[in-house]
Amino acid sequence: MNLTVKTALMTHRGAVRKDNQDVVFVSGIVRTGDMNTPEVCGLDLKRPALLAVIDGMGGYAGGALAASILAETLAEETEKENVFDAGLDIDNDERALRRLLSKAAQRMRAEALKNPVVADMGATVSGVLLREKSALAFNCGDCRVYHFSPGCLERVTRDHSIVQMLFETEEIDEEEMRTHPKKNIVTSAVSANSLIEFELYVMELPLCEGDSFFLCSDGVWEALSSLELGALLTRMPSSQAARVIFEALMAANCHDNVSFIWTGFSSAAENGELRGL
Fold this sequence. Notes:
30% helix, Phosphatase 2c, domain 1, 13 strands
């Protein structure tokens, strides 16, 4: 069955922060700053499509620059032929993703050598690599990917963070991860620090009609619980449905930047909102 891929994307500073250091990336398209309304597009999976949510770290100048460098690296490298086309299995795709993130880290280091003010910059990232029949979800840091099928929301990435460690040792539950005092301490990121190698978590999943993936920065999952997100993801991505999610985030007085990509799969395209990429 040929599936139509519908994608909604949004990034915003949130209800409290004065600036936005998040970036969203959809198949070569980069969005930064404060979007006034969610953008909706359709994806063509004749070639693998890469989607990512990126959260900058290291103060205003460093965080924004790191996120921008990572997004621009993804955009430039995925324009080249055979970046993922030759990777017909999860191991090859994982190696290709590692190469992309390593190139971004190298560019961050080069910038840090020229400007020591941004020497601590880095970025966390989550994403999905979409093929015609499968998806590879991945993350580095505490941006997340959720898989939603009717009636079931499942986190399919693993945070690289202190609270993830506490969760795995059963010292806290998943709901407590959202409010724990150490929730913002990550243990891995794509960064300018040449002494630290980033960790990458990957999981392969099938593409099925009616399913969707929800990628988000930590500001989203800290503001809305899994139950709240699951209730909001009952429809396929559209500008109206994505707007409802954004309004819920603002109503929750989100204290961080909020960025998400919501991509879903159906057997026929809906009229009106889809713009092909």
